Amino acid sequence: MPLTSDSDIRDAYKAHSGELYGFAYRSLRDGSLAEEAVQETFLRAWRAGDRFDPELASLRTWLFAIIRNVVIDISRKASVELKPTTETDDRTDDPFDRALVSWQVEEALRRIGDQHREALIEIYFKDRPYGEVAAELGVPEGTVKSRVYYGLRAMSNALEELGFDE
Question: Which CATH fold would you assign to the domain 94-166?
Answer without folding.
Answer: Arc Repressor Mutant, subunit A (1.10.10)
